[in-house]
Amino acid sequence: MKKYTIKDFSVGDKVYHLSNTKLKMVAVEIHNDLNEISCRWVDNDGKVQCIEFMAEELGKASDLGPRVYSI
Predict the structure, then answer these.
(1) Stated pTM of the model
(2) H helices then E strands: how many in the chain?
(3) From CA 28, how far away is CA 39, in angstroms rounded?
């Protein structure tokens, strides 16, 4: 897995938290001054969730290989 910094992410990137590769999220805001990325996903109950993560906590979903992603 590649280590990323805040400069490696763009709005719209499909990402995952390094501790859970099964949960795919979308980067919806980049906060360079805070080194945080706001990510959004739909949970198992169909509710939209949004939370901020440090860039170093995230990986790009494309690194996980060719798969069909549903977000």
Answers:
(1) 0.83
(2) 0, 5
(3) 6
